[in-house]
Amino acid sequence: MTHLANTIHDLANRVIGFKVLSGHGASIDTTTPAGKLVFGIFAALAEFERELISERTKQDWPQLVPVEGQVERPIK
């Protein structure tokens, strides 16, 4: 999502808008204030989710047990 946000920002600097044309609830148009808001919210949520996944992975990593050269989760 970071790459997409950077691309949209670069396009905006060149006075080029981005509009979602299809899909469920396709109402993102970065040429309008509402579209910019929606895009910004989606970008922030995607970044938040990515950081949560990374944090959970780092927390679980020490609990993994090496088994015959492979790393596996312990049986609960």
Description:
- The chain is mostly helical.
- Helices cover 53% and strands 8% of the residues.
- The protein contains 2 helices and 2 strands.
- Strands 1-2 form a two-stranded antiparallel sheet.
- The model has no long low-confidence stretch (mean pLDDT 80).
Which features would summarize this protein structure in a list?
76 residues; 8% strand; mainly alpha; 2 helices; two-stranded antiparallel sheet
Derived from helix and strand composition plus strand pairing, the structural class reads mainly alpha
Strand order of the largest sheet: 1-2
Secondary structure: helix percent: 40-55%
What general form does the structure show? elongated
The number of E-state strands comes to 2
Are there runs of 5+ residues with pLDDT below 50, and where?
A: none
Calculate the mean pLDDT score and round it. Answer: 80
> How large is the radius of gyration?
19 Å
Order of helices and strands: HHEE
Instruction: Quote the beta fraction.
Output: 5-15%
Specify the number of helices. 2
Biggest sheet character: 2 strands, antiparallel
End-to-end Cα distance: 35 Å
